[in-house]
Specification:
The structure is a homoheptamer of 282-residue chains.
Chain A: H1 2-22, H2 24-64, H3 71-100, H4 106-122, H5 124-138, E1 147-150, E2 153-160, E3 164-168, E4 174-178, E5 185-187, E6 193-202, H6 207-224, E7 233-240, E8 244-253, H7 258-275
Antiparallel strand pairs in A: 1-2, 1-5, 2-3, 3-4, 6-8, 7-8
Function (chains A, B, C, D, E, F, G): May play a role in resistance to osmotic downshock.
InterPro entries (chains A, B, C, D, E, F, G): LSM_dom_sf, MS_channel_1st, MS_channel_C, MscS_beta-dom_sf, MscS_channel_2nd, MscS_channel_C_sf, MscS_channel_TM-2, YbiO_bact
Family (chains A, B, C, D, E, F, G): Belongs to the MscS (TC 1.A.23) family.
């Protein structure tokens, strides 16, 4: 280096470098770069501000909506999304600014791309959860308070969240199900249910009489209970075996009231058949 | 900077920069850019306008169609699609305009690409739902009111939607099934059904006589019921065991009328066999 | 701008711009562009015309083919494919023409690519359906009227479509199965079937005699029924238990005639064994 | 345009354009293009010719091979492959020639790439079928006439095709299985089978004597039947219950002859045990 | 080489090379490179320092959190993540610096990309584990000490880790479950449970009396046990058979106390029914 | 053309073209191309030669290895791999040489890439088979002659091949399993087995005495049979029912000898218990 | 060529080529290339040396670790990894060096990329095995000697390898399980187990007395056996049927000692109940 300075002359190098820097052609280049950097920076700030405001708006919307959301959770998720956006935008702003100065940043982009894909693959089910959650609310598939079944889990909907839905089963457990796994849903709360009861009597019972009594009893139960919404129907002989005959009765009742209705009919039919000397054996 | 100005001369830099800007060669470049920006902007507006109109058209079409769509849902989905298209087109218009000014926007594109792929993977089943939904209607697989079974869910079709189909089961629940999961469908409502009834009598019964009575009774039932569309057929001895013999009868009946027809035949056969001193034991 | 015009001189700019436009070097460039645009446009029109004609040809072919296709469906699908091709080709023609004018259209292409991949992933099973459908017909796997089973669905083939195959089950339902799901097919209609019947007699029965009677009866049935195509074979003692002995008979019969043949043999064997004082107990 | 001609002078433009075209520098460029186009065209023709001949060769080979192929099917598939290759090669030849003239064809290539990937994904199982089919033949996994089981399908191999294998089940159905699904194969026809027979006698039977008789009978059956290839072995007491004792016999026999051998032994053992006052009860 | 030196003159080459190196134009180029290298190096150090500090911060946070983490494990994972980041950043810094010197490093990047993707695919479930683990804590799905069930594994949560969750089953085994597999969770500890008890009595029992006794006994148990939180309810006749009648009682109790409550009621009901001359037979 | 020749003068064009070709600048360009082509060609030949030799070496190795490989198969696979490598290398050599002459071959590469990916996807399981096969041998998972179970297939290993492994089941069938499907393997041949025998006696048997006799008998059997490697252990009372008591004995024996050992113990215990007036009833 | 030499003059070409080669501008270019090649070569050697040393280090570490690794296997795997790294690095060094000489090597890279992806897909489960194996050791999921269950395989851990884990089942088989398939693990050896025993007595047994005796006996067993670590608890009446009553006892015992403890309690309870005139019937 010292040798180099001695031979080439430091003075000359300094002077020529200076001339290079202050030449007008370079100035215009640098002006362009400066303008581009400013534009990029301003755009980055604008995008961050807009998305943060949009997220805040959505969070407020959610809090106002009649669906029961846990405000704390919505709030935290709002801040989480905001941070992720800010960091990502800043990363791209830095990359873009550096690239204007002529840095070859392809490797960093490639690295970020591979990382992004890797996270993207891992986060695939996360994205699916959010999209499906959106459609569950959007399509009125079920609401908080409905009794639904999805897969093997049945229960009352306690909360429809951004990522998971919580069901409370009849025996008190909480099923936490990612929205993305809620593909086929059965909603038990939107329409009346149909209670189906099989009444079995011995083979040698007088079937006409048994049917008559069954019909009258079912009618009476219908008039006394507000769970049953239509007069029960006796469909006929469902099955015959060596020892008994089975009749089937159906009764349209309020959503999810089948077990109560069946228990009610069970008891009343047993009583009334017994009163007429017949025996309900199933 | 001050130093720079002092040495290089601010006046000179200003003058030369000015010359650079107003030189004709640069003017033509800038004219080209201006024209390109205008073309891009116009194209963007045209695409947005056309797609919005197409979506509005499709929404109106759907509302007119005989299939029962919930107008509110169709409307909201229409607006949703419109917004997504507008935002996407605007994003590309901005990117294209900036790229005409010489911004190196590869990083943003790469970022958008990774994001697009990530969302694309998550939304894969959404796309599949819409495509399959389209083919369900297009191929007349089933219509509102048909009784169908797909997977483990059987019921009457209540609504064929853009993304999900709703079935109402016999006992009143609503099954909500994404169209993409409706792969194998069984439609019970387009053709007549075949009721199959096994009549079991004791081993030592006179089989000829039992078959005769069964045949006559089935014929009589056929003449009195409009559910059965062809005279029932006695296929013969289906099975023999140590204690009993089973005959099989089939009766072509109206779609989904099998349970009623079987109950009807059950009752009538029990009665008529009893009248002839035989006993139906299954 | 006004300032600029005052300083730089509008007249000079106009003149030099003009010179730039009419210089021969630029003329040759523009001529090249014009020729390329024309070639691209012509190529686009040619591709559209050829593919449309090819589709129309295929539709006509299908209508003439002996397989039962619903002409309305084939027609609509023909038009659908035609439109998709036209729109795609036009999109590429516009892109190519614009790219000749020096527009940087990479972003649009990237966007279209991501969109194409997203739709491609969603439409994957659609492509698979069509390819498999092609091979089903191409390889004579089954024809309309055959009884086939695929997965859990068994029935008579009603229609082999472009995307789905329709089976009519024995009890009257229509199974609609996407061709892509028809992987393993069992065709019951191309070869004779083998009816297998197990005849059980009590342990202390004279086995030699029982076999003799069984053989004679089976032979007789074979001579009277045209469903059985070869004389039935008595394979021997299939199983022995504490209380009974089981013999196995097989009878090659017409495709899908097993149930009838078994019922026939069942009845006749019961009768003939009884005539000889033996008892068929299974 | 007219204005342009008036101002710039059409004559001058024409002359300079002409000069441009006939200048030697451009001539050499065009010569190069012409040579490249010829080379590309010739290469395309060569590739098409070679692959078509290779396919034809393979088709002839297949027809000569001892495996039973349906010549009609092989022929059609040969022509199908030939067409696909020709169209693909021509497409690339046109693209390459156009690209020599300076057309920017990246969009078309991207489009073809997306299309290719879409079809590729859909055709994935097709490729897998062909590759697996190749290895089935190549590795002698089974041959036409062998009894094999793959998945739930068991039967005699009727045909090993390019894409599917056809099995004929014992009861006459044809199972058509894509080669790609034939992963685990069980071949029943290459080695001798082992017939396993459990002989149950009452608990209070003289076991020594029963074993002696069983051994003698099995030996005798072995000497009279050519299905059994090695003298049967009495393994000993397999199980003991409250009421009975079970002995196990094994007999190596010809492939797939187990049922016949077991039926034979069943009958003979029942007879010989009875002759010695013992009773085979299972 | 020697020849070359003789002819061309080593002196001249040396001199001209020297001139080339010390010419000011090259100096500015090299100055730019030097600055870029410094910027890249500084950026690399900054990124490493920041991420290392962030990881250390998170580790400390975890250690302070009330959830029981094994400090040793958290620590090791912290160091592991730190190393991975340092190595990756250094790799990119080296690549970027080399690329500033004009090395064509595309092959290395491509290689690293393929390697990254390969590892990315293999590590997919790892990423998913971490993301799901984050959401489990974030969404309060369950806490250490809760009794949960996921898939077939039920137990008390012992530790929620970065990658796996440990459950201790009732019989003492530790189930170690990757967080990514914890999709559907059932939490038994957040709400009261419902104990369901079926009481079966003989068919000819006086049902009114039995219900009265059952009710009184259940009430008494409720008053003496603090496991039951609401008075038990007698729902009615659940089922009737030929020989017995079954009544159902439900009792809301503390989370996971059902078995104890049922055993308690079982015993007390047996006793009190016996005291009244009735017999609990199920 | 003729016009062109007349105007421009063919002579002049010829001359200038000639000058262009023989100018030294072009000569050096062509020399470079020639050298590169030679290098590429030589490299291609070298790669082909080396890989072919490596394959041949591996084939010879395999033939010498103690594992039973079918030499014919190994040979054919060797040649197959050799051909695939040669064709691929030649394809790349041609592409590289053409690209040195300035052909734009991106389309062909893209086409080959798509094709490669398509085949790659289809051949995925093939690659997996080979890799897993390599690790099976490499990790000594099992050897020819071992009894192993993988999935539902159990048998003696007959051959570990490049792509498939062949098992011979106890009843003589050959299971052919792709190596890639051999994930979980159970090897029965490397360690001693444990025979487990449950001895059931009537509830009122003198348990002490029964255990004593059992112990003595088991000891005696152990001394007489070389299949049992350790003295059998009487674990105690395994289960109690209303009518009987079950004791459990375990005996460490040679690999896969459990059935024989159990049969042996079964017989001897029955005998010795009977001698002491006790009865083994299970 | 001869013609060319005659016309253009070989002498002149030779001279000018020479001038071209020895001109200083080219010298500096070649010097740069030479330096780059040296840097690349040195870097390649360094990477190879470092990774080889790192692998050797890891192998030594493994050999010293208390976990039982088979040294031979670890050694071979070390050498295997070393070779793969050397070949890969050399490939990239050659590619990089060639690319410095201006070879267009994109095709080779594309080919290597497709090959890499193909192998990467096939080797996906291999990578997953190694990563999961690392976490098994890293997270102390289980150690050699523990009894674990994963999937359907239960046994004592014999060896945790780089790719597979070996379990020895209770009956002596070795289960070889790829680490990637070890997702949910149940470890039976880290905590005490809970032995659960149901004691059934006849319905009319004096329950109080039976419980008293059971309690005393269990206590006594606890005092005499060191397998039970806490005094057994009598939970109460578990179930009641028509004929019997079942009590449940639990006893915390050493890991995996449940079967022994249950057998012990079984025997002792039978004896003590009998001594008090009661009968244990299940």
């Amino acid at each position: 280096m010292a040798l180099l300075l001695k031979i080439g002359g430091w003075e000359q190098i300094k002077r020529e470098t200076w001339d290079y820097i202050v030449s007008p052609a370079n100035w215009t280049v640098w002006l362009t770069i400066a303008i581009k950097v400013l534009v990029i920076y301003a755009a980055g700030r604008t995008v961050t501000a807009i998305t943060r405001r949009a997220v805040a708006h959505m969070v407020r919307e959610r809090e106002k909506s009649p669906l029961k959301f846990d405000p704390r959770r919505t709030n935290t998720i709002g801040r989480l999304i905001g941070n992720v956006i800010t960091y990502t935008v800043n990363f791209f702003v830095i990359i873009l600014i550096l690239s204007q100065f002529g840095f070859n940043l392809a490797p960093i982009l490639a690295g970020a791309g591979v990382l992004g894909l890797a996270i993207g693959f891992g986060a695939q089910s996360l994205v699916k959860d959010v999209i499906t959650g959106f459609f569950i609310i959007f399509e009125d598939q079920f609401a908080v308070g409905d009794v639904i079944q999805t897969g093997a889990n049945k229960g009352t909907v306690e909360e429809i969240g951004i990522r998971v839905t919580r069901l409370r089963s009849a025996s008190g457990e909480i099923h936490i199900i990612p929205n993305g796994l809620i593909t086929q849903v059965t909603n038990f709360s939107t329409h009346n249910s149909l209670a189906i009861l099989d009444v079995t009597v011995a083979y040698d019972t007088d079937l006409e009489k048994a049917m008559e009594i069954t019909k009258d009893t079912a009618k009476e139960v219908y008039h006394h209970s507000d769970l049953i919404v239509k007069e029960p129907v006796i469909l006929g002989v469902q099955a015959v075996t060596n020892t008994d005959v089975t009749m089937r009765i159906t009764a349209e009742c309020r959503p999810n009231a089948q077990p109560e209705v069946i228990r009610l009919l069970n008891m009343e039919l047993m009583r009334s058949l017994e009163q007429h000397g017949l025996k309900k054996i199933g």
